[in-house]
TrEMBL record, chains A, B:
Binding site for Mg(2+): D15, S41
Organism: Insulibacter thermoxylanivorax
UniProt protein name: Heptaprenylglyceryl phosphate synthase
Key words of the record: Lipid biosynthesis, Lipid metabolism, Magnesium, Metal-binding, Phospholipid biosynthesis, Phospholipid metabolism, Transferase
Assembly description: Homodimer.
InterPro entries: GGGP/HepGP_synthase_I, GGGP/HepGP_synthase_sf, GGGP_HepGP_synthase
Length: 227, 227
């Protein structure tokens, strides 16, 4: 399963704290996307996470959890993505909460189901940047340094450039992908049309489409382009 | 060279900010220790680091740098140990300074010469604990969680339990070593006699002897026991 993420080009990220109708969920899950990621920055609980998992499990596609809080660790997902916020000013978002989670769940963790992500938060005005106190005002060389830290020092399997709500600098995203030798590059932020999906797919290994699902389902579905 | 650390059982750590006579340095370098580590928490500069490197280089044993500040990155060492302080409350000691260093030196770095260490600071009263604002008051399960974070999430080649100035809990050190599957376990702190060296060698893969060099050279040399 761990290796399957290598083949993911497009994923939808569903936020357990947001409402989605059965009809919209059905269209998302049968859209041809490669996987569903369940996760969000705020308001994520055990209950709303397990509810969403149960609804997505009716479909055949992979369903993975991106863990943002220890309270919302729910068994039964195919994989667990573990964000390591490389540009946070606070230790808790890089190792602190992770240590707590490993302490609490350590004995029962199937290590092969964990996928640590070297997260780089790049939109200063986003909820995730404020929450993690990220040093998000990074230049080109800073972002490349984050990617090298993620892959060369920490040997994380995924590097994730998160522009959260804003469409990023695709030249920089492409440069990061060309810098990485082993890691998979995830890109997220502002993908709200087929055109932007194509641009992001040309720059990153895997694109993550989130907010637009809740704003305009038709445009969200259009991001599932040929790839 | 990277793989050579696997065979290290005993290393001396020399602090560039402390004086050592040629005679004492000669005895340290011909003691039978496996390597010399150059590094310290405070007062480390480019000049005092390169001076010490030049003096140690007259001997045949490996000489490696443990980087604590970007100003003291000196070319010419066999390896560069990069502490990642897993239990720091401040992002700068886990990823922040590392990002700066990778930004500054990225293009000329031979990645294979870098050895990131998952550092766990365990003496609350030490200089390194205050400097890094480490959450050093850890229970047994917290330390095991740090080791798993170091090896399973970050895949760091070395996990380093640093009791800095205090002789640690050898039962816990042994438990950490038994938890680790791939990483090398370094132990440092309070090794000031042959007896303590033997106890630490029975618990860790590699023991690091530092302060006693500057307090009592005879007892420092006694720590190079049969192993």
């Amino acid at each position: 399963m761990h290796e399957d993420i290598r083949h993911w080009r497009h994923v939808f990220k569903l936020d357990p704290d947001k409402e989605i109708s059965d009809e919209h969920l059905d269209r998302i899950c049968t859209s041809g996307t490669d996987a569903i990621v369940v996760g969000g920055s705020t308001g994520v609980t055990f209950d709303n996470t397990i509810d969403l998992l149960a609804r997505v499990r009716r479909y055949e596609l992979p369903c993975v959890s991106e863990i943002s809080t220890i309270e919302a660790v729910v068994p039964g997902f195919d994989l667990y993505l573990i964000p390591v916020v490389l540009n946070s000013r606070q230790g808790q978002w890089i190792t602190g909460r992770h240590r707590e989670a490993l302490k609490q769940f350590g004995k029962m963790l199937p290590w092969e189901s964990l996928v640590p992500e070297g997260y780089v938060v790049l939109n200063e005005d986003s909820t995730v940047a404020r929450l993690t106190q990220a040093d998000a005002n990074l230049g080109r060389q800073d972002v490349i340094a984050c990617a090298n830290l993620s892959e060369k020092l920490f040997r994380l399997p995924v590097c994730y450039l998160e522009y959260s709500g804003k469409f990023g600098d695709m030249d920089l995203v492409r440069e990061v992908r060309d810098t990485l030798e082993e890691s998979q590059l995830f890109y997220g932020g502002g993908i709200d049309s087929a055109e932007r999906a194509r641009q992001a797919l040309a720059a990153a290994d895997t694109i993550v489409v989130g907010n637009i699902i809740y704003e305009d389902i038709e445009r969200a579905l259009e991001t599932v382009v040929d790839r």
